[in-house]
Description:
Helix content: 25-40%
Strand content: 25-35%
Number of domains: 2
Order of helices and strands: HEEHEEEEHEEEHEEEEEHEHEH
Number of helices: 7
Number of strands: 16
Structural class: alpha+beta
Largest sheet: 10 strands, mixed
CATH architecture of the largest domain: 3-Layer(aba) Sandwich
Shape: globular
CATH topology of the largest domain: Rossmann fold
Amino acid sequence: MVDHAKTMKLLKLNLAGAGLILTCHNPELAYFLEEELSSFRDDRINGQSSRIAVDLVETQNPLFERIELGENKFLLPGKTELLIEYREREDGPVLTMHARLDTGADNSARRFLCSFILNHCLNLFLQIQNRRESRHFLMMHACGVVVDGGAFLFTGASGAGKSTIARELMNMETAMVLGDDMIILVSDQQGWKAFGSPLGGDIPRAELKNTGAPLKAIFVIRQAAKVECRPLERAQIIPSLITAVVPVLPLKFTANQKMAEYDRQSLDLLIGEAAMLASAVPCFSLVLTLRDSPWKEIFMTHKGGIANG
């Protein structure tokens, strides 16, 4: 019998300027979380912060055929199944993950499982913050960078170059890269801010900055031989953002939730959040070469910089 009190790992985290105390009993998952969240640890976080307890229980038995209230079943790559039990307690929510791993699962599959659990924990944390705070939280698939005190986001289809841009800008002395896949956006009375998140991407989390800054512009990117940057027409903005905005909602059905899987209420929220963002932040179409792009001029576009080059 494992003594959970002795194996429990407690992580104090600062995410988008809000505190989270995360506890974990499973040693493998705890090691993964420590590694992925190292840049977000903050021992100054106090007991008033949000709390989430998470545990991973592996089984070879088939998972429950009938899903009860507070449970979600997910099919992961291969034949791995994951059943997530969600329970509310006075000291915070408890997530228990029951995993039935594919018999051929290797280390990469196990890391994907841990990464999915981290995604679920962050989603739940932002749901809690939306209920607690006057600030509004959502996420966005984008590369994020802070330059001269302002945040800029680069979003686009898979393969458009988000991670390449992040690596390019890591060599720029005046730039701080927030992430190359998922960025946390927060709205308050002063406007929108962008923050780094510990989710996804090709760049190791330890190399990214856990900071935030006022959001100055969003660029919808594609690659070509000639650099061109123009404001998006109003009719283009919401369709361009709707595929990038990730509302803070309970995950349903599958690991990689598609727009077709949103129910009507969730889809209305998605459209509303894209519209809210579009009305407050300048959005541009950016065609670029990725290599040797005029970054200084690009970051000035929200002040009337380059139209083409």
